[in-house]
Amino acid sequence: MRILFLTYFRRKVGGTESYLNAIIPAYRRRGNDVSVCYTDEGPTNRQPFEFADEIQQWRLEISGHATTLGQIKDWRPDLIFCHGTTDLAFEADILKLAPGIFFAHNYYGTCISGHKTHKFPVPLPCTRLFGPGCLLQYFPRRCGGRSPITMIKLYSEQAQRLRILRSYAVIATNSDHLSVEYDRHGFNTHRLPYPVFADNSERPRIARPDSHQRWQLLFVGRMDNLKGGLVLLDALPEIRSGVDREVELVFAGDGPERKRWERKAARVRSSSKGIHITFKGWLDKTALNRTISQADLLVVPSLWPEPCGVVGVEAGLYSIPAAAFSVGGIPEWLRDGENGYLAPGNPATPSGLASAVVRALAPENYSRLCVGARSLALNWTLERHCEAFDRLVEKVMKLTAVELQAKPSQDAIPI
Fold it and tell me: Dihedral sign, CA of 237, 238, 239, 243?
């Protein structure tokens, strides 16, 4: 089968690109003819994909709309597997060439800002259906910025995305939470188990010299308001008072709120004994894996409804449990009392997060949670994902064949 992977960037930027880096070679190994089309170059400070020469690749920025479309048409794909694009007109034209599956990694076409969150008076997950009513909520609920021009632009873009999604045979999602969101908008959805690792090799933890004196907490991700870094910092004094060791919090990541978080961290350190805070910035994969392997607990203080949040599964491969707010798709990988603890997410409070962290680090719980973290993470395999995708493709191709048979021939004479 010839599968065209259609996506945003040629460079590895986030979770979607990490997914493609694993799945595209895997599908070629499974006997498929695979190609990739990127609609944008992406940030030049990030590493580009390096696929085998046998994998045909198109770059819309280089060849342009008409040339790229013509070349893909000549390649004759059997299936379009889309992960979002930066050119909606091109995406619509590509879907005329073959049946399509759209893999929703986020709230594509169902939210004016893409965050599915009201930011005022406090951050809360939004449950509205996308529509004109979102324009009325945009400023009062601080869904986005303060520019009415930007509001109209974002709304028009998401409305267009929603229309294009109607052209896909099915919407695939990486969580039941996201499936429910698209089901509410009238789509046919299919849950695909997300692949986090491709082998069963051990991921050993690395012991720290200070492991008996300090608990090390780890935050991984982009530093912006909805990722909850300030809430986590506010929770640290209560966490320290509830555990039997000093506490070190390591931030691995960067973003627009980093300076603000660093100022807050300095105030927390100066006012509380036994609290240490380190900012490491963005780490490459090797350095990040080493940092994860040295941690005692992953903390995911996201205030917005994360569609999935697979960093918790990646930590689980190293037998690292987690504490997080119960929002979005997080409860699908964080099983309360099995591989960590959940804090109430509506509303999300520092005290609630501190309680979840303290419970996870309690001597009567911690060893059991470590075992559970590894056990649950081992279910998120590349092989399991590929098998589920094969079944979905078979379903889509059968549906397409039935639809083609039901259409009248162009040569038929109407009665």
Answer: positive
- How much is the average pLDDT of 310-329? 95
**Following DSSP, what letter does each residue of 98-142 receive, concatenated?**
S-EEEEESS-TTT-SSSS-EE-SSS-EE--PPSSTHHHHHHTTTT
Give the torsion sign (CA, 386, 392, 394, 397).
Answer: negative
Q: What's the CA gap between 29 and 88, in Å, rounded?
A: 30
The candidate with the shortest Cα–Cα distance to 342, out of 313, 378, 370, 300, is 300
φ, ψ dihedrals at 390, nearest 5°: -55, -45
CA 228 to chain centre: 16
Please report the pLDDT score of residue 20 as a whole number: 86
Task: Give, for 74, the enclosing helix (H) or strand (E).
Answer: helix 65-75
Mean pLDDT of the chain: 92
Q: Is the pLDDT of residue 409 over 50?
A: no
pLDDT for res 53: 85
pLDDT tens-digit map of 264-285: 999 999 999 999 999 999 998 8
Contact 40, 17 (CB under 8 A): no
Q: Are 77 and 56 in contact (CB under 8 A)?
A: no
Q: Please give the pLDDT value at position 219.
A: 98
Q: Please tell me the number of Cα atoms within 13 Å of 317 on its side-chain side.
A: 20
Pick from 77, 78, 9: nearest CA to 41: 9
Task: Give how far Cα 139 sits from Cα of 135, 152, 213, 244, 348, Å.
Answer: 8, 12, 48, 45, 22
Instruction: State pLDDT tens for residues 5-58.
Output: 999 888 766 677 778 888 899 999 999 999 999 999 887 777 788 888 889 999
345: exposed, middle or buried (C-beta count within 10 Å: 0-12, 13-18, 19+)? buried
Letter for the amino acid at 291?
Answer: T
Locus of tokens 């941690």: 295
In terms of pTM, does the model score above 0.70? yes
Compute the distance between CA of residue 88 and CA of residue 248 in angstroms, rounded to an integer.
Answer: 45
The string of DSSP codes covering 349-411 is -HHHHHHHHHHHHSHHHHHHHHHHHHHHHTT-BHHHHHHHHHHHHHHHHHHHHHHHHHSPPTT
How do 117-118 and 124-125 pair as beta strands?
Answer: antiparallel
Q: To which H or E segment does residue 288 belong? A: helix 285-294
Contact 159, 108 (CB under 8 A): no
- Alpha-carbon span 161 to 12, nearest angstrom: 23
